[in-house]
Every structure is written in C-alpha cells, then in structure tokens.
Amino acid sequence: MTAIAPAAPVRAKRVLPGFGLTMGVTLTYVGVIVLLPVIALVLKGAEIGPERFVQIITAPRTRAALQLTLVAATMATIFNALYGLLMAWVLVRYDFPGKRLLDALMDVPFALPTAVAGLALTALFAGNGWYGALLQPLGIEVVYTIWGVALAMSFTSIPFVVRSVQPVLEDLDPQYEEAAVTLGAHRWTIFYRVILPAILPAWLVGITLSFARSLGEFGAVVFIAGNLPMKTEIASLLAFIRLEEYDYNGAAAIALVLLFIALVLLVASNLLQARAMRYKGKGA
Amino acid sequence: MSLSIANMTRRFGQTEVLRGIDLDIGKGELVALLGPSGSGKTTLLRIIAGLDWPDAGSLAVDGQDWLGRTAQARRTGFVFQHYALFPHMKVRDNIAFGLTVLPRSQRPPSAQIEARVRELLHFLQIDALADRYPSELSGGQRQRVALGRALAISPRLLLLDEPFGALDAQVRRDLRRWLRGVHEASGTTTIFVTHDQEEAFELADRVVVMGAGRIEQIGHPDEIYDHPASAFVARFVGLTVELPVTMHQGRAEAPGIDLTALPRRAMADGPATLFLRPSDIAVRPDPEGCFRVAEIVSTGALLRLQLTGPDGCGIEAEMPRRRIAGLETGQPVLLRPEAGRIFPAAPRSDQPATPAPLPAFKEQRL
C-alpha cells in the first residue's frame, strides 16, 4: 500500500462558491461601473490645468451656482434630518390606522420620476397653485427661488433618512429604555442619552446620503427653480449647459467640484460613524 | 423598607397573568419569586418596579401607595435578565448613569459620582473593567456591572429578573454566593425572580412559589422542601413521582408498594395522590413484588432505576451505587418510599387523565 497522502486542509464550506470568483465579479463591477467614470472625470479635470480650473470655478456664474446648490442642499438636509427622524419615530413607535399606508407613501419620492415630482411641486407652489395661492399673500415666493430648489431637493431625498433610521429604531431593545426609567431618567434624557447614540450611525448615513443626493438632484429642481443664471441655477444644470455648449472643460471642472464635496462628505460621515460605533468592539 | 401587595390582578388581553396576589415583604429580606415560565413572577416584579401596572389591587412601600408613582420616582434598582447595559457607554458610565441623570439640583458633584463609581467597581471586584464597553465583557462580568448600575442609586429595593438565567453553571454558583454577600453588605430589601428551585433555596430567606398567576406557598426553603403545600409545589420542588393511592384510616395504600414508613394523615378515605422524590424510594428485591426493574442507568454516583408497575405505569427511583447490590434488570422488586406527600386526588385539567388506574391495581392484588 502506498503511503497515505496528507489530507488536504479542511476548509470551511461557504454558501457562495469560491472567494476568488465572487470577489473578482464584485471588483470588476466596481471598477467598470463606479471607479472608471470617476477616474475619467478626474483625468479630464487634470487636463484643464490648475490655472484654467480656478478660472472656471471662480467665474461669477459658476460660483453663484455652486453656492446656491450647497446652501439649498444644506437647507434641505437639515429639514430632512429632523423630519425624517420624526417620521421614522412615528412609524416605529406608534400604532395608528393607516400606518402601513403612510409607511408605503414614504417610498413615493424614490419611485416617482423626478421630473414628475418637479412638475407636481411647481404646479402646487406656483402663484395660482393650491399652496402658492396661500403663501403668495404672505409674501412667500417658493417657485423660482432658493426655497423652491431646497423644496425639490428635500422631497426627492427624504426617504434616505427615514429608511436608514427606521430599521435600527425597530431593533432597539425596549429594555434599554426600561433600564433608564428605573434609574430615574426622564423622557428627554432617555432620548438623547440612550436612544440617540444607538441610532446615530444610521442617522448619519441617512443624512449623508440625503445631502449627496440633494447636491446632484437635477430632474425635480430644474422645473421649480426657473434656472435664472446667477440666481436659481444649480451646479449640475450649469455643467449640463456647458456640455451643450461643447465646453467639456467647463462641465468637467464643475462636476469635479461636486464630486470632491460629495467625497469629503462621505469620508467625514464614515469617520463620524466609526466614532459613534466604537463601542461595538472588535469583530462585533 | 417593607413592601405590601394586596389583591393584585393583571391581565394581558384574555390571559390572566396575576389572579389576586397578596404578599408582604419585610425590611432587609431576600425573597425569591419561584415559578415556571408563565406563572406571572416577572410581571409581578415589573409592577413593583413601575414598568407595568396592575388592573386592580394595591402596592404599598413603607405604608405609602406606590401605584401613583412613576418608575423614575420609585428608584428601585432593577437588574434585567439580559442586563440591558447601555452598549455605547463604558462600564464606568453605565454605573454612573443613575446619578448623572438626576436633576441638576439633586445631582452630586462629578467628583463625588466618580468616587461612588470607583467604590462600586471595587466592591463588585471589577476595578479593571472600568473603561471597557459591555460588548467586551463576559456574561458574569456584565451581570456584575448591571448590579453595580442598579446599586449606584442606593436603591431601597433591589429587584432582579432571572439574575443568573443567562450564565453557565459554574459562574452561577459563584455569583449566587457573591450576590448573597452583596445583599447583606448593602442592606437593601431584595426580590429576585427565578425558575430554578436550587437557586431560590440556596439564596433566599423566604421563597414565594408562584403558579398560574397565584401564590402557591410562601415559606422558608426547608419548609417548602419538606412540606409542600400543594400538588403544584410538590411537583416543583422535585417530588416528581406521582402515584395514585387509596386512603384507608389515615394510611395510604397501593399494591406492590410498602407505604408504612409514611406517617398517618388526617384525610378522608378515598383516592389520593402520593408525591415522591425518586431518591426517597427504597427498592428491595422481592419475588412477590409486582414492580419490575426495567432499566438501570448510571449518572455517576447515583443510579437511576426505571421501574414498571403492574398496569404498565413507570416510576423512577434513584439510589446510591453501593446500595444496588442484588438488583438486576427484569427482577421483581418491592418499593418502600421513606418520605412523601399526599394530596387529595384532584382532577387536573392540564394533564390527560390516566384511565382509572385504581381498579387495575386492585385486580392485581387479588
């Protein structure tokens, strides 16, 4: 009899076949669909040269567009952060008739084509619309102002906050609150010392996604904004206009700035999340 | 502090969880609420803590009504079964929580809070864990932190829900002894809930046995062990062998079983049920005996005998290994219970009625 060959090392069986295959498919996808366009954009931007780049960015029209986009996105995100948290809270903590319907309605902004959303909002808030007719006598103009831009951004990105906070809130064990109650903590204290830290990472994710989406929102905004250069023209529209004018460099430079802001935000948000989750321990 | 509960009921929808609880607990006592799951013991504990409210009845502490008070105002130390430590806080912050949430006017200065936390960490023998997060602790360590958090507010009443339920056997035994020490050192009145009778008996001054929303018996552990007040308690404290017997002039009689070792009971003649511990049954070889040894299983020091009766009913007996001499499988034996409890035979709805075992016994006897 021949000597028995040493047994092959026993490997844990995995559900999906082969780490190599699955990892390969994933990386290829990320490379082709996500990384390549971003790199192409950066390379295109690099062709412009720093001097021309600064020139494009600091042009009054570009600056106004970027400023409008950032301010409106910030306004929309602050609103979404608060309202989305409240909405998630109501959907998780209370039982009421129509709860499932409301829950389903939360997805409408995602399901609706953004152009449809933009049209609907414009129709509602225009001077002769249902809301506009009420607001105009008060001197509040929404359509063709920054308010309209923020409104459209907020509408299309609100589900991000609700949908990221909701599951975490649902999983939160009521025993933590009971423990806090027996230790003498009152409602508000329990909220900010026990509940908020638990949902903070998810909330941050929702806020970041909401802001990133607002920065790039196009379809809904262009209907309600009026798109007056220097006044209500958002950055992504300006990039689009530059492209139409065959000014590829101009379009790329604006796009790069938006990309940069989004990246910085993502990194910051991830750092904050890591900080908020540091208690989970290694491997937990 | 003393605690007094009277006529308390609680129902969840159709289910009656508490059906009239009367209970008095004295200052500094360590009391166990013992019962199977669904007996209402945890609900009672939660009502005392203010996490649940009864439908009727009263709860008074030191003569003051407590049902009108919020859980925050009661400030009981409550230790949850799964500890419910705040996962995002370090051990020291978890323990300090009850002090740091006090309104500014009542809150001790932070140096004082810190000192109190250090003192508790030392008392609980977990000094080294102060800066860990709960996820970095073992079950036993979490238990100690949970207790520390509850003790930090100097509660007059300490409530523990299945305090050792989630721990393994060795840690349980250590912590039990240690908890007894904590209770004595802190001087609080302590109530804990458990389904483990060994735990209740080892730890508590008084045990309250609960079943199906009622208190079945209250007493010192020995009292309950030796004199269970009802069939329910008997089953619960390990009298797991149930034999149908006939009472005759105060003595229990059953074919094939020598019941003369049991004391006379002032009970009317008629059918009754005898409750026995497997270890209280002496098994003797006897060619006349109508029980047979069906199986002998060793559990180490003890041997467990499965005995089959005349009508096919099975009885379990336990005996030390050295007393086994002469016993073999298939052998006819005589049973002589040395201790047991007799209760009038009551039809139990939750068990399938055995089809009239008594006539069968009699026939065999003739």
UniProtKB/TrEMBL annotation, chain A:
GO terms for cellular component: plasma membrane. Keywords: Membrane, Sulfate transport, Transmembrane, Transmembrane helix, Transport. The lineage of its organism: Bacteria, Pseudomonadati, Pseudomonadota, Alphaproteobacteria, Rhodobacterales. It is a multi-pass membrane protein. It comes from the Bacteria. Part of the ABC transporter complex CysAWTP (TC 3.A.1.6.1) involved in sulfate/thiosulfate import. Probably responsible for the translocation of the substrate across the membrane. Part of the ABC transporter complex (TC 3.A.1.6.1) involved in sulfate/thiosulfate import. This is Sulfate transport system permease protein CysT. It is found in: Cell membrane. GO terms for molecular function: ABC-type sulfate transporter activity. The complex is composed of two ATP-binding proteins (CysA), two transmembrane proteins (CysT and CysW) and a solute-binding protein (CysP). Belongs to the binding-protein-dependent transport system permease family. CysTW subfamily. It comes from Paracoccus siganidrum. Residues 66-269 form the ABC transmembrane type-1 domain. CDD domains: TM_PBP2. The chain crosses the membrane at residues 19-43, 64-90, 110-130, 142-162, 190-211, 218-241, 253-272.
